[in-house]
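Input record (one chain):
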Amino acid sequence: MKTYIAFDAHGVSQSPGRDLKNYTHVMTWQKSYPTRFDFVNLHDIHFTSQHSGLVDTTVRTYLEKKMEQAENLLILVSEDTNVDSPILNWQITRSVNRHHLPVIVAYEGESSITTEVIARRAHKLPTALRHLMSQNAVKVAHIPFQSGKIESACKHFSSRAARYPWSTSTIF
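The corresponding structure, as predicted from the sequence alone:
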């Protein structure tokens, strides 16, 4: 099952932020364990341009093609996540509304997920995701940022198999 990964690419042109480091980390898992992980590779795109026209004409077109390959959406969340990142919020909205991808949120720094963790970290969820959740327009599986949990959730939730989380706050 192919998984599309959305993350805040903040700091790509300067020093990489935690979300980009986490993205690089999961792509390393895929290289090390190719039978366990099947992530859509976003790394062959250059996120370094600050030119807004390029984002609208090139990056979004490229990301849209990658979303079409995926069966679910994995969102990487850390304390550094820019919840108002335009491209991150666009990816979430597009993945949910157009491609109907099940959403999995992986929280960096959590060993387990509880309803208290979800409530405490809600302010770090991207704005578009919080909006969709408040409207009950998306169902979300919440997991810790751990290889085994990510592997299990990505293999379980699938748009093609019509397997979605049960609610906006499914703990998986």
